[in-house]
Structures are given as structure tokens and as C-alpha cells.
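Page 42, continued from yesterday. The earlier attempt failed because a stray header line got pasted into the input along with the sequence. Redoing it now with the clean sequence only.
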Amino acid sequence: MGPAGRHQPGPLPWWARESGVSSFRLLVTEPVDGAANMALDEALLLGRLRHGSPPTLRFFAWSPPTISLGYGQRLDGRIDEQAAEALGLGLVRRATGGSAILHEGPDLEITYSVAAGAGDFEGADDLLETYRWIGAGLLAGLRALGAPVDMVPVQPSDPAAMPAFCFARTGSFELEVQGKKLVGSAQRRQGSAFLQHGAIMLGAEPARLRRVFPAEHDPLAGMTTLEAVLGRRPSFDEAAEALAEGFRSAHGLALTPGGLSEDETALAAMLEREKYATDEWTRSGRAPRALTIV
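This time it went through. C-alpha cells are written below.
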């Protein structure tokens, strides 16, 4: 106890020592299935909300390839579940909104997530500003790879017009090349913290997309890939390195490679088992009643 009965503050954690924009943890994880990926993203969000986890930039991929549904998206026939099952694809529901994405393995996609909170950078408490801030980091990294990427300005939002396929529509501060969407993102805000994640297509399997999203006249009409733009397909590792450098150069961000804490690992395992791997959550968006997170 310090003077006047107050606790003396301990030393600041490593991620809070910088002035201005704080340091972020850089986390690159192995490809896992949809339930494990989405559980880990939510664990990072909850960890940041509780101030036990640092703000984190994560890069990851999927095994097996998996369709992720937006939080409020209905399974209404616009996604061919039988075709998805025949192709060996997984199915998971995100905690974030938006439309479905067919996530691929590390040969075809790199997925990013940012878990942060108010005070981690200027504007972190504002929805559109966080989209713009993250978009600026992604844009710098993609341009370093040689992609002539542009950031889309603020777009009107009409839930009634939301397509089943994420890449059929470009939202505010998402990234395009010559009018075709390259990055699809979604966000969830909880208290003073937020999670945003999104897919960056290294390449694509057109026949698989057409089978899974039969309601789209041509799911590739409004999207593009780095392979199509660059004439070559960057590797997952090359893309992760360029994107991390993009956040450093766009924001002066200090990125420190790190791993998961024991608390984060345990929370992610619980969320995977009791929420994201359950049919109740995947098919209806309702977390099991027994699930309590404090």
C-alpha cells in the first residue's frame, strides 16, 4: 500500500510503454479450423476488454477451408450446404456481422484480425475511424507488394440489400483494385474494445466459389485476387511480412512478435468447445445458455 492507502502502480506492461500509438503484439498462428479461429479472435477481444491482453494484429489461415457466416446471416438456401459438405468445407458463424466468406488455406488466403481498445490509437473508439485506420495499414502493405490498391470512401449501409457473398459488395474503407474488391472485413465492438477481421485473397478456386454460392450470378464478378493483380501469387509468409510492415509504415506502429498467454489459450479453448463448435451457434447464432463469460 502506498501513501494515503492507495496501491502504488506497478511497471507498465510492454505494450503500454510507447507514447501515442502503443505497441501491438504481432501474432501469426498456424492454420486451424473455423471454430478454433473464431474462438481465438473472440478471446483476443475479451482479453483486450479486460486489459489483460495487449492490442494485437494477427495473421492466420484455415484448415480445412471454411465458410464463415456473418453474425446475423440466415442459412436461407443462398449458400449450398450440400455442395460445401461434398467439398469438405467447414462452416462457422462469426461474432462479427456482414456476409459469408469462403476462407481458404494459406496457399490462397491470408486472414487478418485486429483486437484493440479505446486509447490504443487515435480514433479507436469510433467505428468508421477504426475501419479507416486498419484499411490504411492494409493499403500500405498491399501497395508494397505491388498491388495498385485504392481505399473506398464511406458507403451507405442497407442491411436489406446485403448479398450472401461478402465479396459481392464493397463497404466503407475496404480495398479495391480497379473497382474489384480485394479485401473483405467485418467488425464487432464490445464495451471499450473492438475486433475487426477480414480476408485478403492471394488466389481463388472459381469453380468452388460458384458451387458454394449458386445464388450469385457470378461470385467472381466483383472480386479480385493478388494473383490476378500481380501476375503471381505471393506466399502467405511474404504477404504477412508486407502487411505487418504496412502497419508499421502507415502508423509508426511498433509490432512485437509474441505468443498467447495461458489465460488466452484457456479462454479460446472454452469458446471453441462451448460456442463456435456447436450447432446451436452455427445454425442460429444463439450461444448455448450454459455459456457464461465474465
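Notes: The first strand starts at residue 24 and ends at 28.
Reminder to self: strip header lines before submitting.
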